[in-house]
Amino acid sequence: MQTNELNWIFQIIFxxxxxxxxxxxxxxxxxxxxxxIEAALRELQQMSNEGKDLLIKIVNEKGKxxxxxxxxxxxxxxxxxxxxxxxDPAGVIWRMEHILDIRKFRWEKEVAEIAPAASRDxxxxxxxxxxxxxxxYYIFKVIRHFLLLGKKTKSLILIMQVQMQxxxxxxxxxxxxxxxxxxxxxxxxxxxxxxxxxxxxxxEYSRKxxxxxxxxYTEDITLIEQNIEGRNAFIIRxxxxxxRVGKPGExxxxxxxxxxxxxxxxxxxxxxxxxxGEKTGTIIEGVGAVIGGPPVEKYxxxxxxxxxxxxxxxxxxxEESQEDAFSPLGKDLVNAIPRAIERVKNMIMTRTSEGxxxxxxxxxxxxxxxx
Amino acid sequence: MSEPKLTVQGKILKGIAYIFLGTGLxxxxxxxxxxxxxINPPFLDxxxxxxxxxxxxxxxxxxxxxxxxxxxxxxFTTLSLVKCNNTPDCKYRKTRKFEExxxxxxxxxxxxxxxxxxxxIAAILEVEKKAKQKKVxxxxxxETLQQIEPTSEPTERKEVEKK
Lengths: 371, 163
Known about the structure:
The structure holds 2 protein chains of 2 kinds. Chain A has a 7-stranded mixed β-sheet with strand order 1-2-3-7-4-6-5. Chain A folds into 2 domains: about 5-185, no CATH class; about 190-360, Peptidyl-tRNA hydrolase (Rossmann fold), CATH 3.40.50. Chain A is of the alpha/beta class. Chain A has 10 helices and 7 strands. In chain A, a hairpin with a 2-residue loop joins strand 2 (about 220-230) and strand 3. Chain A has helices at about 5-65, 70-75, 90-115, 120-155, 155-185, 195-205, 250-260, 295-310, 320-325, 330-350; strands spanning about 210-220, 220-230, 230-240, 265-275, 285, 315-320, 355-360. By secondary structure, chain B is an alpha+beta fold. Chain B has 2 helices and 4 strands; from the N terminus they run ααββββ. In chain B, strands 2-1-4-3 form a 4-stranded antiparallel β-sheet, with no helix packed on it. In chain B, helix 1 (about 10-35) packs antiparallel against helix 2. The radius of gyration of chain B is 29 Å and the shape is rod-shaped. Chain B starts with 7 loop residues before the first helix and ends in a 35-residue tail after the last strand. The interface of A and B includes residues 7, 188, 328 and 338 of A.
């Protein structure tokens, strides 16, 4: 073949390549992104299926159900909660609380029927496992929805949005999957550092004087009265070792009102999200109602303790990533606990005087953390 | 997301793959410049540049895929840290594998080997399994959890005394 002819062939190939890139560039991008989402979706499906299998295994082992629990568990996987209307914001907090209460009641009833032999703590762990399995399944469903919708409409914008957020979504899904396993076995998770710290504090001082423990001060909340450095400390945390968070806001409100506002200080300890670059287990201090989740409990604390009685509210946050919060407790967080206890003690000593009443609330999920 | 860790073989394969891919790309660029600009390298003819270029890119891609097999998936184990009720007076502590129904602050039926006090679970934590374990020192002077760096394998009844 002559060199001239060869040049022609290459010229045609180059032009063809140029036109393909020019007109089908987006299609090719779309295809590549779809493939990435499909790979992630397969992983999500695997996690979701594994989660469901694990859940069924736990329910069968610990709950001894009378009939096959698969159908009822699948129904719980698709369970939904309709948020209260916020177009008229007046009273939205109480409407939200009502909805959360009926959801909790419904789930507890379902778990009691699915796993009749489970103890209260085990039932709480099963509830946590169902919730985690439901979250992984929901992420899978949403990603699948956008992938199929993107394919159907050939919309680059839909596919691109999912693909760009995929690393973060997968990180969260994997963390929830870890939480699922942790709840199933009753292993403490990163979110539980708050109750861990307050119980560690009680344990330290209970050598000097025995505490007065009131289980179920409010539903799922334990109140411990303990003398700490001459102060009357009222320690509030969710009742462990089941996977519960309780209603700490309700308990704080009740206690402040029972004492007619004769509380001098409120200290709240919780896990908080760190920024990338910050070290897991860093302890920071601030003011305000340090509590996450639905705003109901935060509102109660701000309203009852803050506005009504002008109670000073301090907070200690143990920084961790979202992944750490859902995963079993790691070395960094366990090592941060004694330091956090020291910070709480220091806060009590410097901000309150002897004989004063102080509330110390450890906020978080108590899975695997006894009272 | 952080880059997945690779085994030594994986890292070597990845390095070779990048060298192959880079060389293949240079060969292809030389071939294209030979076609469009008429600059012919003296050491190889045009068809060979193409063949070598494509072959190297193909081999590099295969090696890159093979290197992915060497990704180390972190394995975790859950440990229960057991301490004596007389802490901090008694420094006894040990780690053991997490057992069903373990929970933090659970009082155990076992007694301390050192002071015969009751044992309890001070913490439950997840640690990464290491491929090769360093030998755990017999004695540690630490007092609090802060200094505890649990090993990924449970230690046999390990007593820690004050120096």
